[in-house]
Amino acid sequence: MSSSSSPYSDLPLKPIPGDYGLPFFGAIKDRLDYFYNQGEDEFFHSRVTKHKSTVFKTNMPPGPFMASNPRVIAVLDAVSFPVLFDTSKVEKRNVFDGTFFPSVKFTGGYRVLSYLDPSEPNHTALKSYCLSVLAKKHDNFIPLFRTCLSELFIDVEDEMANKGSAYLNTFINQMSFNFFFNLFCDKKPVDSTIGPKLFDKWLFLQLAPLMTLGLPKFLNFLEDFVLHTFPLPSFLVKSDYNKVYEAFYSFSGSVLDEAKRFGISKEEACHNLVFLAGFNGYGGLKTLFPALIKWVGLAGEQLHRQLVEEIRTVVKAEGGVTLSALDQMVLTKSVVYEALRIEPPVPYQYGKAKADMVVHSHDAAFEIKKGDMIFGYQPFATKDPRVFDSPEEFVGQRFVGDQGEKLLKYVYWSNGRETDDPTVENKQCPGKNLVVLLARVLLVELFLRYDTFTVEAGKVPLGSSVTFKSLTKAAST
Ligand code: HEM
């Protein structure tokens, strides 16, 4: 049995509280509680209260008949959660979406990188390839993203002029799609039918088991049956997927040629590239950016004034939006980390115990058996009140200064600590630095153009929605 040596090593060993209920019925009950009777936050809160523990047993959706085994051990605090980052202790094979694994027909017959465990040789090949592609494209990140943002703000201003408000998610989707297509293919799609809606349809069919559409109550059972009981068929999106694949195959030649060096065929590389662009990249940004704008918008004018001051002063002194300028913007950086902390875009992580082990919460130690599925609901770990003061509050300055920076190791959005880096041995997101960079540039462009803004926030399946209600143009730059 392995056990981590830490300040928590002396804690008493306790049995893991909770139960799975009756076979089949227990899983259905938990699924209905999770989606309809309680909602995800209350689902976890009520169980933490009932069991007086942040580590407990529960079923996780979707369950029957989508997942062969819905039983998990939930880890919901900042201390126990990182066991999921330790690939010597947990197996990450086919758990990217949770307890179910979408058909490989969605990805051209290949198990793409996100589903591979680091012990599989193909993980090393594909992750090295991915890191190499991103490193080669590094110099394009800022100029390309700024061009995409200019287009976004033109569209948003048009919409504001016409309608008096602008629903931002649609524009963010278009902009994120344009960014990744251009990044890998060096141009816009020639076929104008290739756009974010194709990715949305493809993502929906794969992620439906984790979604609720927020329909009226009387439709809950119907929705539960359609979305959560059987996998939705891939043929519904086959021709759309092929169209995107062909476009990538035709235009991302130099990126695909590079794959040979890593022993990867051009076809496998291209299916992985579509997944990087469409699922990891587009899927990630379409969730992160509305949340970021929402929290910054709701934080109000005082934070906006401070960001304006920092951003415009540094950009002026540095003569532009450069990596070195971005690095000096301590408040902007902190605001991005705070958004990733308070609303992590990918809230669930899974890993199967590779051996018997002991996991600690703040208060106790628990024995987990080989083969058990460990599940982390990240918003609870990154809002752990024993690590973060006022954890439910968006505090823009939270990560500023020496004390603030010490908290970065508790920011987990990338499936690793913010102080760690993605490698071929771990499952940390290889887009980590890119994502943080883009989020900073988004704030910089926003506050170079505008002094302040107001928003209306809402919910969409798997994230937040945000609408600009007002935008006040910059009085001075
Ligand atoms: C806001 C945007 C993003 C978020 C929130 C995000 C989050 C994550 C998370 C949580 C994981 C680990 C999942 C797990 O195994 O449990 C992951 C893995 C991964 N991400 Fe990201 N990601 C984002 C953007 C990107 C981008 C831009 C890329 C590349 C272009 C990327 C590529 C990947 C890949 C390839 C993996 C699998 C890593 C491995 O197998 O070792 N992600 N990401």
UniProtKB/TrEMBL annotation:
Pathway: Secondary metabolite biosynthesis; terpenoid biosynthesis. Keywords: Heme, Iron, Lyase, Metal-binding. GO terms for molecular function: heme binding; iron ion binding; lyase activity; monooxygenase activity; oxidoreductase activity, acting on paired donors, with incorporation or reduction of molecular oxygen. Gene3D superfamilies: Cytochrome P450. GO terms for biological process: fatty acid metabolic process; sterol metabolic process. Heme binds at C429. The keyword Heme applies. The keyword Hydrolase does not apply. InterPro entries: Cyt_P450, Cyt_P450_E_grp-IV, Cyt_P450_sf. Its cofactor is heme. Belongs to the cytochrome P450 family. This is Allene oxide synthase. It comes from Acer yangbiense.
